[in-house]
Model the fold of this input.
Amino acid sequence: MATNSDFETTRGNGGETHQQVPAKGPHEGSGHLTTNQGIRVSDNQNSLKSGARGPTLLEDFVLREKIFHFDHERIPERIVHARGSAAHGFFEVYESLADITKADLFQRPGEKTPVFVRFSTVAGGAGSVDTPRDVRGFAVKFYTQEGNWDLVGNNIPVFFIQDAIKFPDLVHAVKMEADRAYPQAGSAHDTFWDWASLMPETTHMLMWAMSDRTIPRSLRTIEGFGIHTFQLVDAKGGVTFCKFHWKPKLGVQSTLWDEALKLQAADNDYHRRDLFEAIDTGNFPEWELGLQLFDQAFADALPYDVLDPTKIIPEEVLPVRIVGRMVLDRNVDNFFAETEQVAFCPANIVPGVDFSNDPLLQGRLFSYLDTQKSRLGTANFHQIPINAPKCPFMNFQRDGQMQMAVPKGRANYEPNSLAEHGEDGGPRECPATGFTTVEGRAEADEQGGKLRIRAELFADHYSQARLFWTSLTDNERAHVASSFTFELSKVGLEQVPPRMLANLRNVDEDLAKRVAGGLGIELPKKAPAAREPFAMDPSPALSIQANMKDTLEGRAVGILIADGSDGAEIKAVVAAVKKAGGKPVIVAPKVGGAKLADGSVMKADGQLAGSPSQIFDAVAIILSEVGCKALLKEAAAVQFAMDAFGHLKAIGASAAARPLLDKAGVEPDAGVTDLGAAFVEAAKKRFWARELNVRTLA
Ligand code: HDE
Done:
């Protein structure tokens, strides 16, 4: 039923009559400009003054309301994960999972559930860059028919700490330092490594953080993980433990460190733009949802604890069962209303899903509701459209700031007998379909009551850190060793790098030696391990390089042209890239275009100075002799080729472009081709063998 505020008054013929018509939402439509009280504004250019050159009058309610509202446009940014980008989409379940969960969204094959997904970096502020070395948040809100379920995960399957009580310390240590307010969005500084080197439980996560996982190519190419063990509950109350995985259709892809640094300079919004443009052009990002399912006996037999969020269960030990897909097919209409105001909370679960006793998860169940109150200012934040369930919701909670609902009648308490009197008595609890908590094991009794303690196997901080190391390719190991070297090289506290190295010796002696060598310091004595690590079989699924897909789908190819370039050659490359599913992007010294050999003008998508090769996955350089000669004097052109080579990308070039390649130090290898079919094949890959010829790695 509409309320008065749902109507706007329009003037009828001659302005004497008034009729009410349903209004659009606030700020929608293109009719008359009004104040927030609906008063039409006659002049939105000039404030009210006393005379043409006189003072502005306090009486100007149009001005005051406008400035007052503007002054309050910002809300507190998220303390972590402040910088994010989001989109709408759907989740589609492939098969009925009724045998393991009664969760409504998993019952009917092919059924789609709307979702809203927000990706984020962790450490930087809302205005920081998209491509620092950082963990990425991967938060999914499922608007199911039985309420909202938030799966609030990251792109790394483990976390820094084992107990929620350490989270404020972690975040204080990693964010900009308290006195100097830098560095923004990065962990390469004293306080982070001081803290991390004193916290051996961070070691496994540090290995992931120092790997290519934290410098992703695109938000479309990250995996997502629920991290904690959860429980799935079937209709009979049967319980299955579950770990959630999101697998990107395009495969996992990352950048190189040098590339990530240069991306920061090229485009602060690289990931946000990439996600928006992909959806805008119909290339909808897609992930499959995978489950690792196990029971108590399986968990009890593992040499590590499934309640410990610093541990994974390797896919080779317990396969991931793919049960559905998620497609992001709609950009937000308004960043603030949706991306900024969305309020995720791991405590939002639906019947059929339950928590585990993971002590990190348990702490999160408190934190998010609390944080939303402070960010959004009211306990009614669930009424904001992006947060409201899409199924009916009703209870006896009332009032509070920004209450949008207008409940009728007297029933704001329960039990009540108002219905007996012919009044609406309001909703009632339902033992049959309502959420019930899994009883679980009486662990407190078994293990000795209330204690500030951790379970025994949590003390093994190194076995899985070593598993990660042994599962990587040679290039990836070199990246990990080099990142540790880089980050520790930024630490001014002398005691910290040796302390970190002493920990790393427990992971792998070679890693520790390489980092010590990279820093140019002595290898310290090994730190005593709280629990001796044991050997685990490598998990090939953990390597990005070994699992990269040879494809141009979702990737961009930069095509550098200049005056005199051959139009037929350009067309052929554009067509071949498109045919392979890639996006060709024409780059020229002037954005207005280049005058081709046949006298025609080809418009450019990007100007050379603003379109360096790091924003592409491969490059083609199509130049005439004259064009090449001109570009030899253009640093941006030389750098274009040099960085493409240094970032291990394919370079296809016309014969006349060779002098530019020579000047850029491009040496012949399998990734340097002519413009024929070989180029498109090469463009699907990175040329890892080239890496040690272009830079020294630890
Ligand atoms: Fe969060 N985390 N977190 N976190 N987290 C927040 O909630 C917190 C943790 C994650 O796109 C905050 O709305 C505690 C693990 C994501 O809006 C806050 C602990 C994982 C996002 C908060 C953790 C995450 C957040 C800040 C330790 C991966 C962004 C603003 C017990 C499984 C969601 C907000 C979005 C956001 C608390 C640990 C993921 C303060 C106390 C582990 C993806 O409530």
